[in-house]
Amino acid sequence: MTLVDELKSAVTPRAALLVVGVFALQLLFITSYVGALHNPKPTDVPFGVVAPPQVSAQLVGRLDQLPGGPLDPRAVTDEAEARQQILNRDIDGALLVNPAGTTDTLLVASGGGTVLASALDTLFTRVEGADRRTVRTVDVAPASPQDFDGLSAFYLVVGWCVGGYICAAILAISSGARPANRERAIIRLGALALYAILGGLGGAVIVGPILGALPGSIAALWGLGALVVFAVGAATLALQSVFGIVGIGLAILLIVVAGNPSAGGAFPLPMLPPFWKAIGPALPPGAGTWVARSIAYFKGNDVTASLLILSAWAVVGTVVTLVMSSLKPKPGTEPIAEELGAAGGAAA
Length: 348
Known about the structure:
The protein is α/β, with parallel strands linked by helices. The chain contains 13 helices and 5 strands. Residues about 330-348 have low confidence and may be disordered.
């Protein structure tokens, strides 16, 4: 056998295509992470201004015209309203102007991301200094001392996402990526649901009572974790039911390559480039991170939209999996499963 014949025998066209796909995924991974995180800077940060009526409009206009557009400022009636809007996650900070002195107060919320809070502090130290004023920073929703850089919520959700797509991949690879019938699809979804419940509880207990990394309701985090794991797993099962084994790669593309850098974990959403800022809230890592931080630091406020997004991933993934499992499979659509079976028979 010539070298060319040996190469053709060793590397099948299917294997070559999969390697090309992995190569493309690798390049996309690098592009996505470096593109999203290499140059973080605040852009259009929702921001409140509390000032006397005679200077409020002028100050809002001035802040809106800062180079690079770091702020999306709006007038707020008083300090109580500013604090409430921060806790409701309507704004990420506020400036309280003191007309009787030269020291103003900057309200931030490091629970939503310490990097953004620090960026606002740096920005207003410079802005106030140009007017020969000083700024005093007050953290309205401080991150836990055990939650370095406010990253624990993000890592918790990443762990849940990893569990979801790996569990779904194992359920598929064990006996063909596409379910042979609806009953098998229901069994897979049921096993995934049980895994999601246990995985959600495990994550909530680890970050709460065991490590003390995140405050907030353990029950709420448990429910969120179960939803995140099931949503990601159901989406992975759906992709596998449509595309076969390639669906696992597509799940990694959506969750890991696109979802993780756009989740607002390492850098909150206002510090990400426009593309990642736009897609992040619609993907499970971003929606899950938002809810986890709201539970931990913002009294559970502003979670409805993100929970609906996660629920949509779960429902659509479930429906697609069930619909595809009811279709008659085409002959020879599971070469990977056949190869695994043949290998097992040869070993026996």
